[in-house]
Amino acid sequence: MTAQISEKLLFEGEKHAMCTNPLGDYCALGGELPRFASNCTALWRGYVGTWKIINDRLYLIELHGELESGQDADLETVFPGYRERVFAHWYSGVIRLPQGKMIEYVHMGYGSTYERDLLLEFAKGVLISRRVKVNGVAEDQDAKEGYSVGAMTVFSRQGREKGDES
Amino acid sequence: MIYLYWYLGVGAVTLVVMYVAHKWSSRSESGGIKDILDAMNPDRKKLSYRIINNYLVPVLAAVLVLFVWPIAIYMKINDMRNKGASGSYEEKVFKVAKADLLAQKSVEQIESAEIVADPLAAVPPLPFGHLNKCWVYLIAQMQPLDELWSFKTTWDGNWGQKEIRSGYAIVREGMPEAYILTARIPVEKEYEE
Predict the structure, then answer these.
(1) In whole numbers, what is the pLDDT of chain B averaged over residues?
(2) According to the 3-state scheme, what is the secondary structure of chain A?
(3) Cβ–Cβ contact A104 with B under 8 A
(4) Is B193 in the A-facing interface, judged by CB distances under 8 Å?
(5) Claim: this prediction has a pTM higher than 0.80
(6) Residue-wise pLDDT tens digits, B101-111
(7) Do B129 and A89 touch (CB under 8 A)?
(8) Pairwise CB contact (< 8 Å): A86 & B191
(9) With an 8 Å Cβ cutoff, is B81 touching chain A?
């Protein structure tokens, strides 16, 4: 498995890479998601969501992806009638925002370690606590700041239909 | 010398077959995936990237196939053999146990407790909000003597990830049947301090 492209979170005026997928919980709790196409190995879920915390509440404000039918998907594709934002009331748990330089790259999921993690805890979509977890200091002082994905493979149409890479 | 011509001839045929197969199977990037890839790698928009990606790499690949076509054919056969070779994996299925039940509730109690309100009107003002359909589907399965119970349990699910699961279940003749989940919170040791 390849390191995954993160979700995005707008929080206190800054844009963060968000290494948690609250829409995965929506689906696990019974919510219906359309069939997204997995166009590359760094995006198995098939979409990238942009989230925002407004008055301590977690909202999904944008979504970009492609459906298996070939159509582009946006927020209204998943939540008809909600074009601007969707309150993530279903989400309870911790959201991880990696910060600083990369300490160790792991080519799987959100496995890479960064100098710090800003951990935001939510209960039913409402922010209830925050803390910073310090993971260490990067040995390579020239290491790039912020979350990144090392490599990915983009699927061809035939490969995708057969569940294989090209 | 004739052998060299034959060798290169076969390489040329292999190249043509592979090119046609690639053109047949490849697809152009959709707007959605293009946006994502551009955001991940801004260099994609540079002329140098496009020259390397669209011209240099394909030309080099073509030259390689022409001269070392046996390796290209071997890789393709290997690739085809590996298709569908991945092993099967049986997922654990979550079930509510009798011991997980917390308290009996009425439909009205649950619906008033689970109404979701939002000051920005970003959720339907219904029980369970965006997940209202699940609730409607659950209570549609209720039979006359059924009860509704809340439940909470720790589930040691797939991939070795423990999580706390809570929700509501229909209890029929004392046994939990259909259910809905209202929360699944991973027990993530790495986040604990």
Answers:
(1) 83
(2) CCECCCEEEEECCEEEEECCCHHHHHHHCCCCCCCECCCECCCCCCEEEEEEEECCEEEEEEEEEEECCCCEECHHHHCCCCCCCEECCCCCEEEEEEEEEEEECCCCECCCEEEEEEEEEEECCEEEEEEEEECCCCCCCCCCECCCCCCCCECCHHHHHCCCCC
(3) no
(4) yes
(5) no
(6) 999 999 999 99
(7) yes
(8) no
(9) no
